[in-house]
Amino acid sequence: MSKRSDSIGRQKSRVSRRVVIIAVSGVLLAQPIAGLLPGNGASFIVSQAEAANAAPVLKLKQSQIITAGAKRMDYVWHTTRSNKAVKTDVHVIEVDLTNPHVTLNAMSGRNNSVGQRNNILNMTKESGAVAGINGDVFVMANEGAPLGAQVTSGSLMVSPSKLNGMYAFAMTTDRKPMIDAFTFSGTVTAENGQTFAIEGLNQSTYTPEIAGVTYSHVDNLFIYTSAWGGAERPRNSATKPTEVLVRNGIVEQISENEQIAGAVPADGYILRGHGKAAAFIKANIQVGQAVTSDYTLVSQTTKQPVDTSTLQMLVGGHTLLVDNGAASSFSRDIQGVSGSSFTSRTGIGYSKDGTKVYMITSERSGSNTGLSLRELQQIMVQLGVHKGVNMDGGGSTTMTERPLGTTNLQLAHPTQESSQRSVSNGIGVFTTAPQGTVRGMSVYGSNIMLLGQTAKYAVSAYDTYYNPITVDPTTLTWTSSAAVGKFEQNAFTASKIGKTTFTAKSGNVEAKYEVEVIGQDQIASMKINTSAGMLSPGSSVSVPITVKLKNGKTYNLTGDSLKWEFVGFEGTYQNGAITVNSVDGKSTTGYAVGSYDGYGAMIPFVKGEEAVVVEDFEVSRYGITSQVTPADTTKGGVKLISDLPDQTSRGLQISYDFSAGTGTRASYAVFGTNGVTLAGSPTSMTMDVFSDNSKNWVRAEVVDASGKTHLLDVAKELNWDGWKNVKIDVGSAGIAFPAKLKRIYVVTIDQNSDKKAPSGAIAIDNIVLRTAATVKEPARSSIVMNIGNTNASVNGKGIKLEAAPLIQQGSTYVPLRFVSEAMGAEVLYDDKTRKVTVLRGSQMIEMTIGKKDYMLNGVRYTSDVAPFTRNGRTLIPVRLFSEKLGFKVGYDEKAKKVTIE
Known about the structure:
The chain is 5% helix and 46% strand. Strands 1, 7, 8, 9, 10, 11, 17, 18 and 19 form a 9-stranded antiparallel sheet that branches.
């Protein structure tokens, strides 16, 4: 029994009072998963009825120690659904309870409170844990107190709700894990001896699974301690409270039909009654009298009270999944947590001998397909779980970890939603180990380098107990196994192509790291992901670069790694963009050619600008839908309107209501399924924005051709009233076009929230791209030459050649410079590398004297023939050269005549 005759406060523990907020796919939610996912969530859920009974298998991919007694293990779950092979990543933190230096504890809310949700990463950081997972389900419309019980460091923080078949995970102070269902029993005894049942402790409003009962707090008595962090006790209760403040066992204050102001003191508690409970208070309790409150958890297995001081921790969950090492019957209906659908999942269980705890999450993001609850059962069984329970899933599923040797906590895998969900509580892994001596180190930094690049490297170190320990950088020595560059302290400058192994050493401990300096011979293609720039002084364009190696690996580079040459204009490269400084007088087309170790890529620059209307909302071409985040507290909508002040055409309104939540909140307009195409190589995007002067923020989400998401500022602050045309710089944003405009949204953050309007509406209209004009092909010429003859004609006009065409080994060769210039092309020649570069319109071909490899628009190809020089003149294989640039080559063998058109 937990008796509180003097005070009800939180027991002090080694765990700092920080909270994690966990999202519920929850019980009591009409559409628990769909309401939590981006959009309507439907695309994230697949009916389990489609699943086939294949032979599923769980395969270990990798493992990593987190701390002494805890390691993270990454698996891939392979199965078949509807005769189609699918897979999803599964992550497990395995905790060895025989190791005295590791323990588990509950984490909740903010500063270890109840009724103030937080995300798991914050909770892990604030509590001092080294890893964690999300915990209990909760009602998302309320404060978010867990629906199950919670015990932190032996102190009962929350009582279980009256819901059937809800199980919880616990660990005793003697390190024994258990999973059981619990109920709550409590009694208040007035000074006159009269008693009344306590319904619960620190609970949000919920709907009990009792016939005829809709609201948990009607006619009932609840107790709230200083652990409660909610602004109300509680919100949405459909009742007016009568409250009693008890301090040191004596009634200090009674308030009828309204809440006592302020938070609950640490040395007291508040009795909160309504209806019959309020009548009991009025009849039996007075200020100055003594009151005793007793309450306890009751095990549904033993039917006996549980002394919570014998529990290290307890966190409620949902249905039982595994019992006695086999999949169990579900202890409650799983529809409320979309149990038959495939989504992100969280579960926890322990081994038969009770020495191992398995904290499990699965992903529904990227190519990962998520799990049904029956699949989670199978995974638990394959892991060796003896008894396991389901925790909250979907957007709530979160795992955090501290990578070996570091002090930085991070997400162990992506969450299902675009941002972390704030949840009620979680389960943390804590280390109690003392500081040891250095046991190992890891080197971190880039493992791919480019010629001329300087990169800095560092080490993270861990001690005897696999906890981070600082290594004095002055004690480190750095060496490279191959002479591909030089170290200066921890900075390495690459000067030669090749592979090497770096060794970092401090005392007797060393770490090795494989690094490769790549050269042009390893490149299969190099592409500038922008089609064209504007040939006008001052214009800038981003030049994101993608390099694909012959081994199939792809890397995104910046232009810093390239040597730049400008044709037709003077330009500079800086911070990912090329800027035109001045234009040669007669140039109508210019070129920026970037070269890495002799391997080139090109972007043309043209005069003129085109304004392309992306969307004016006059014609409905696709569905525009609303989306909000977090889904549990934010409201919003979209609609087409035409009645705003000074509005002359139809526009798109985005409404928002951020008043119910905290943290980052957003209301989105989602443009169809795939977004709106942004083509060409735009330098800017403009749109008309109707501002409500709310001081909120407007952004646009663009996904580029490489799949990278860019968040562009439309308006950093809505600080005007009415319409305004705004300009967004996309030319220097590093966007690879063509791209997709996916969403435009209003967003707010907590900073300076008192100066921002919590609700309102904006509008947008006339989204226009400003892009470089289309690269035009130079005028074509008709060229006639004869083998062995230096006389030729261009468009019927006779010309004398410096070198005659010839046939060698069955291939026809023609003089490079004559043919190129007659075609309207620019020719560049590098004496040192003997590389020939021909630029024409939007095309570039590179050939090297004597080599059969050639590069067309940045892609490497191999020919049967190679260019060569004779008498100081370069001759090229005419058919390869001309046809790759789109010309038609003809040959009259009788007349030995070559024509190019």
